[in-house]
Write a structure and sequence with these properties.
three-stranded mixed sheet; 153 residues; 42% helix; 6 helices
């Protein structure tokens, strides 16, 4: 797995570690993703562009896509395709987690469940394989019955 940017001593050092030249474009994209990570947000390239523009930084959307591809290949960024038609990005990290996507709001919820990982390892082993990696995305809707009982209706 990759590194957790928020724990990086220096983004410049991390870029060098993975063999990438330190550029302002790469640092700016990493900074935006690090800010989004504190809120568990998964950004599209266009959202990164808007964040940069709001701080007075200019970078073309094409450059952002190129930088994201380079950071992904280097293991610093993870790209997700949640069946929404547009890739979303987050910093790579050692904190294994899965995702739920609300079909009504588009909200992406991160969760961790060690039992799921153990179950998948067991299934792979029973079939004569070793689990190397997996991706789990649950597509969900709010349970109206739960909302009513929580709201006291």
């Amino acid at each position: 797995m990759g590194r957790v940017y928020s724990r990086m001593v220096s983004p410049k050092r991390e870029l060098r570690k993975v063999g990438l030249t330190v550029t302002m474009s790469r640092i700016k994209v990493l900074d935006v993703l690090a800010s989004a990570q504190t809120e568990s947000r998964h950004l599209r390239a266009e959202e990164i562009y808007k964040c940069l523009m709001s701080t007075g930084d200019s970078m073309s959307v094409g450059t952002i896509y190129r930088v994201l591809a380079q950071l992904e290949m280097a293991g610093l960024v993870v790209r997700h395709n949640f069946d929404t038609g547009q890739a979303r990005y987050e910093l790579a990290g050692d904190d294994r987690h899965d995702h739920m996507v609300c079909m009504d709001s588009g909200e992406i919820i991160e969760f961790r469940d060690q039992q799921i990982i153990e179950q998948q390892k067991r299934i792979a082993k029973e079939q004569g394989y070793e689990l190397v990696d997996y991706r789990l995305v649950l597509f969900v809707r709010k349970d109206i019955r739960t909302e009513k009982s929580v709201g006291g209706i």
